[in-house]
Request: fold
Amino acid sequence: MDMEDDEAMLSVDDDVARFPESELSVNTVGRRSFWPQGRREKGLLVTVLVLTLTLLCCVVTLVVQNQLPVPEKPKKPGVCMTRECVHITNRVLNSLDLSADPCNDFYSYACGGWIDMNPLPNGQASSNPMDILERGNLQRLKGVLETNGTKESQSEQKSQRFYQSCMDMDAIEKAGAQPLVDVIEKLGGWNISGRWNRSINLQNVLQDVTKNFTLGCLFELSIDDNPVDSQRVSLQLAQPNLVLPSRDYYFNNTEENIKIQEAYLEYMQDLSLLLGGEENATRHAMRDVLEFEKQLAVISTPNSAMRVMNISDLQNLSPFIDWLAYLKVVFYPFMMEPSDTIVVFSENYFQKITALCKRTPLEVLNNYVVWRVVQKLIPSLGNQFETVRNKLKDVIFGTEKGGFVPRWQKCVLETDRVIGMGLGALYVKRYFDVHQTIQVEKMIESTRLAFNKNLDTLSWMDNVTRSAALEKSNSMRDKVGYSHPLLDDAAKLDSIYIKLNLVNGSYFQNVLSSYLFDVEGWRDLLRYGRSTDTWRVTPPTVNAYYTPTENSMVFPAGILQEPFYDKAAPMFINYGSIGTVIGHELTHAFDDKGSRYNYNGNLKEWWEAGTRKQFEEKAGCMEQQYGAYEEQGRHVNGHRTLGENIADNGGLHVAFQAYEQWVETNGKEQSLPAMNLTNQQLFFIAFAQTWCSVQTPQALEESFVTDNHSPPRLRIKGALSNSAEFARHFGCKLGSAMNPEKKCQIW
Reply:
C-alpha cells in the first residue's frame, strides 16, 4: 500500500500495486500480432506438447479401463490433466524465459516470455497483469451499462444515465467550452480568459471552489478516521497535490524535468487559449502561475509529520485565511466551533504557506486557484481539450502520440468514480460467483495462522509485544468480494445516491453534480460517522488494501480472477498469487507505519521499547538493501518504499508457510503437465508472474518519484533474495544474486 509519509497513514493503503490515473491509462491494442517469431514458436511448441500429453493420458486411461474390470484408485501425487491445469501450464510456460538463470535474475526467468508477448498498446505507459484484468473488467462494465432493460434500483438507473450522458459526444461538442466559461464567471472571472472581479478575495474563492468542486488548491481537505480515536471521524488537512505527478518535476531541474515543465506550460497556455485567452497575455500570466506552483512544491515536504489540534490552533499556525469561516461555509449547515478537532499533516507547510501568500500578488493567487478548477473540469469537455491533455501525457509518460483513451472506457471509469457501488451491484450480479469467497476466506485464515505461528519464532520480539501482535492479528477484519449488507439491499443502496441529481443530455452538469454530491458526503460523514458497510473501493477494483485505522483488509471481487485467483487452480498457484497478496496486506498491519496502530486502529504505541528498536534496525537493513538497487541509472528510494517492501517480504514468507501447512494437512498436490518444476518452485513462479510488467522509460522514471512500491523487477528480486525457502527450492548457491549471504528479514 502507498504510505509515503505520515499523511498516508490515515488513507487507504494503495495496496499491492500502483495504478496510473484513469484518464492516463490507455488500453486499446491487442498483443498477438506483435509477438516475436521465436516466442510464437515457443507458444506453439508448448501447446503441442501439452495436447500430446493429454491425448497420451486419455489413451492410457482407455487401455487400463479395458484391461482391468475394477480400476485402481489413482495414485497421488501424479500429473494434473484437467482443462484448468493444461491452461495454467500454457500460461506459465509461455511467460517464462528458460534461457535465463533463475538464481541470477529471477525476474527475467519468470517474466521474460510475458514481456515478449505483451508489448505496450499505443498510448499506454505501462502494463501488467492487474492492468489486463482491469481492462477486462471495464469491458464487462461497458456491456452492463449498454444493456437495455429495466434496472432494479435507482442507483443502477443513475449509473446508466451518467454513462449515457458521458457517451453523448454530439451534445458535449455542441456545448463546447461554454459550460466551463460559465463556471469561471460564477467564480468571479479569470483575467486570463476574460474580466476578473477584483473585489473577490482569496477567502471567498477558496470557499467557493471547495464547496462546489472539493478542491482546496492550496491544501487538501478531507474527512477520515481520527487516528487517535478511530471510532470517530475528523477534519483532515494536508499539503496540496500538484498538477504534475511529483514535486520533483518542479524544482529538480534535470534535462527531462525541464522538458516536462516546458510541456506543462504549453499545456496551460493551450487550454487558456481554447477558453478565450489572448496569446501574449496568456503566456505571461501562466508563467506567473507556474512559478507560484513551483513555490508550492518547494515548501511541500515529502515526509510530513502529523499533529492533532483544534481550529483555533490551526488559525494561529496558518492565518492566511479565516479557517473557521471557511469551514462553516464548506460544511453548512453543519456547525463548526473553534474547539473542533482537525488533524494537520505537514505543520511546516502550513507555517510557510502564509508567508508565500502574503508576498504573492492577489491576481496570481486568483489565477492559480481558477487554473486548478479549469484543470479539474477539462476532462468533461470535448475532443479539442482532450488532445491538449494527451500531449502533456505523452511527454510525462513517454506514450505514443495520438494514443487516446477510448471514449467508452473513460465513461466507464467516470461512472465507477461517481456511482461505483451502484455500478458494482450490476457487476457482481452478472459476473461474480459469491461461492468462491469461501476458499479465499479459508486462505486468509490459513495465512493469518501462519503469521501467528511465525511470531513464536521471532527471537527479537519480547513476549509482551508478541502477545499484543497476536491480538492485533486475530482482531483484524477481512472483507472479500463486496459489501453484502449494501449491495444485496437495493433500498439501502439507493439511499446512498438519493442526493445525487443527474440530468439527461448534459455530461458537464452531471460532473458538477457529482462534486456537490461528494461534498454532501463529507457532511454526512461528520454527522453520522463512517458506516461499516461502506468500502473504500468499488467491487470491480483490481487491487487489495489494508486500512490501519480500521485494522481491516479488503479483497474486492475484481482481483479474485486469474492470474491472482482461480478456484480450479492448484493451491500452489493460488497461494503463490492471491496468497502472497493476502500475506502482503496482513503484513501492512506490522510495517513501519501500520505497526504504530494498535488492534482497534488507534495510533498508540503498543511495543516494548527494546523490541521497537530491534524492529527499526531490521527495517533499516531492508531500507539499505532496496536503496542500493538501481534501475535505469536511478536508485530506489529505500525509505519511501519501506512499507511496501516489508509487506512484500512478509507476505511471501507467510504465504509459503501457509501453503506448506496446507500440504501437510491435505497431502501433496498433483504437478502440472510438461513441466520439470516442483510445486514449490511453481509457487515462487506464480508470485513473480503476478508482477510482470512492461513500461516506458519515462513511466519508470515517474514511478521512482511517485510510487511507494519498488519497480517490479526489484520488487521480485528483493523479496525472493531474502527468502531462504526460495534459495533452497531452486538450489541457488550461497553468494549468488538471488541467494546473497546477507539477508534482511523481519516477519
Notes: The first strand starts at residue 126 and ends at 127. The two ends are 17 Å apart (CA to CA).
